[in-house]
Specification:
The protein has 154 residues and is mainly beta. The protein has one domain: Deoxyuridine 5'-Triphosphate Nucleotidohydrolase, Chain A (Distorted Sandwich), CATH 2.70.40. Strands 1, 2, 3, 5, 6, 7, 8, 9 and 11 form a nine-stranded antiparallel sheet that branches. The longest helix has 9 residues.
């Protein structure tokens, strides 16, 4: 089941789900829009202020301003905002596992002309799914490769 905005707010109020740097304006009817904190172009040093130029046919990574903490019965799914898709940005995202905690690093590719991306702009939507039951082992217990990540983790 995908959570609606009221259900997301309820989990946040009960401290069952945590979104650090939460902004009410980023809440959508069925998710939450994630904000850019840093951008790294071609694996170079991350930029955390101003606007970042992304050349054509170039890979880049984005770190979210939001720091999330998922309970053992909620997973997340990521979708690029259509604003960026319409400008030619392709992105391949995975699931956010139950029990994950940290900033998210999102990988993307500019397929068209040079674009400028402002730090602080929303980039992707996070959609929440309730699991049929609590996971036996959380992300941290299964692998935890990026548990507690801060900033861009490549």
């Amino acid at each position: 089941m995908i959570l609606a905005d009221g259900q997301i707010e309820e989990l946040l109020e009960k401290d069952m789900l945590y979104i650090g740097n939460f902004d009410e304006e980023n809440l959508t009817p069925n998710g939450y829009d994630l904000t850019i904190s840093e951008i790294s172009v071609k694996g170079e040093e991350p930029v955390s202020e101003g606007r970042v130029k992304i050349p054509p046919k170039t890979w880049f990574a984005v770190s979210t301003k939001e720091y999330v903490r998922f309970p053992s019965n909620v997973a997340g799914e990521l979708w690029i905002r259509t604003t960026w898709a319409r400008k030619g940005v392709l992105a391949s995202f995975g699931m956010i596992d139950a029990g994950f905690e940290g900033n998210l690093t999102l990988s993307a590719y500019n397929t068209t002309n040079e674009i400028e991306i402002p730090i602080g702009e929303t980039f992707a939507q996070m959609v929440f799914h309730i699991l049929g039951q609590e996971s036996d082992e959380s992300y941290n217990e299964r692998s935890g490769n990026y548990q507690g990540s801060k900033g861009i983790e490549l």
